[in-house]
Write the structure tokens for this entry.
Amino acid sequence: MIDKSKKDKRAGVIGSTIFHAVILILLLVLGLSSIPREEEGILVDFGDSDTGWGASEPVRNNPTGERNTPPPVSQPEPVSPPPASTPETSEEAVNTQDFEEAPTISEEEKAKQEAEKRRLEEERQRQVEINRQKRIEEERQRQEELERQRQLEEERRQQEEQERQAQEARSNVSNAFSKSDGSSTSQGEAGGSGNQGALGGEAGVGTYNGSGKGGSGTGFDLSGRTLSGALPKPEYNIQEEGIVVVEITVDRNGNVVSAEPILKGTTTQNSYLWRVARQAALKAKFNSKGDAPAYQKGTITYHFNLN
């Protein structure tokens, strides 16, 4: 409603201004064109004959005795332009405000805006949580990869250490047979050169025939304890020889609670021989001893020979 009133007032002012401007132009054009113009020519002295003599104007005789005077020249009355009419002042005050008042926001619209703000904030927080969980998962995977690589490196290092110790054990066995004090170059009963015996035997025993260390090919070391029965022998069916030393843990009742092959004293890296040696060691039984440690450690040595 306010906009329509303003437009009507503006149109009235513009129309009135144009109308009065046209009237003023017409008055100026018509008024100036009505002023009589003077005739063009040369001024000549007043007289009544083509001939005459003298320096002064003769006096004319009038019936009334009055001096002849030229009729006065009528001057056109100046036309004054009509006073410019001013537009009628509107009874209503002219609104000079350069800006319009902001429309009033309804409560429903406010509620919608607040709901939209809350939705955007919840979406932002949800995205932040997703990014945080993603970073946690990436860090977990990175740590798992580092742990896996560490384990692989540790296994490789242990394998290298086992190979080194095995090689050292083989070298020690080989050196034990190759050492000589210069007084003898061989030992044995069969005649001929060389050191009679087996690679799995003991130096200086004096027995040159057999299937392993001593007569049984096995042995154990458990301080203060004795075997209950015979020492179980490993069962194997491959053509492989060597020594496997198994570390055992025995409780007070004489039961072997754990058994693991070790590198010290072992001369073979054959996993099959290691497995059957461990299985045999777990079956061993020792005497019960109440004052023994709760768990006592020892070793069982198995000598594997070619069949």
